[in-house]
Amino acid sequence: MRRGPQALIFDVDGTLADSERDGHRPAFNAAFAELAVPWHWDEDLYGSLLAVTGGKERLRHYAEVYDPEFLARPDADQLIGALHRAKTRHYLALLAAGRIPLRPGVGRLIAEARTAGLRLAIATTTSPANVVALLDSGLGPGADSWFEVIGAGDVVPKKKPAADIYLWVLDRLGLPAAACLAIEDSANGLRASLGAGLPTLVVQSEYTAKDDFAGALAVLPDLATMTLAKMVALWQPHSTL
To answer: pTM of the predicted model, to two decimals?
Structure first.
């Protein structure tokens, strides 16, 4: 059998779950209401805001474009931090209530990869607490321990589309990019993974269906029909190993 990748590196939001639609957007709106900030992000607006990676960065960008007076407040930085903390709390509550299921095929593919002895890792801009809660909710308690490296949150200064988070994960895996396969859902994520030299499979999400995915090994609606054997077949011609 032809050699396959040694590790799979997963993005989280939009890739493992439709967590932007089902979790983050409603959690942001709940945080706005809780802290009496007169903002509301509908689906179309939120889709455009996803061009900015990172929750705190997204809040600041929104204020710069739509509510510059907010940034003139002497407590603007503190309030952005408070909004992000409240949003995380509401997001975790949605996870605990089972409101953010994994996308089709995700659980099966991860189980297949573990059985085959592949190493697993995460490369995301979302916070570590969100990652652990999503994995444990979708895959079972302690599932975060299945992932050898979890690159999340602010562990690197530059977020996607910068390649930093993938380079950080690769360094801790001790593997070259060519020995791994990244799974992403957005143009920003794809730019980050390709920037690190990673062969990348894309699963489109509701918010990224119109993104430019040039350079991806394949672009799929989800992982429902993807098997490890099919992944190896996609990866093999692009590996330099």
So the answer is: 0.91
Q: Please state, in angstroms and as integers, the Cα–Cα distance from residue 191 to each residue in 91, 100, 159, 201, following that order.
A: 27, 26, 11, 12
Computed on alpha carbons and rounded to an integer, the radius of gyration of the chain in Å comes to: 18
Give residue-wise pLDDT tens across range 160-206: 999 999 999 999 999 999 999 999 999 999 999 999 999 999 999 98
* Integer angstrom CA distances of residue 192 from 49, 151, 166, 198, 206: 18, 13, 7, 9, 20
Output the CA–CA distances (angstroms, integers) from residue 162 to 45, 87, 167, 187, 192, in the order listed: 23, 24, 10, 12, 5
Closest CA to 96 of 25, 27, 10: 27
Q: What is the largest CA-CA distance in the chain?
A: 63
Nearest 5°: the CA angle 28, 31, 35 is 145
Q: Which residues are the active-site residues?
A: 11, 13
Contact 60, 131 (CB under 8 A): no
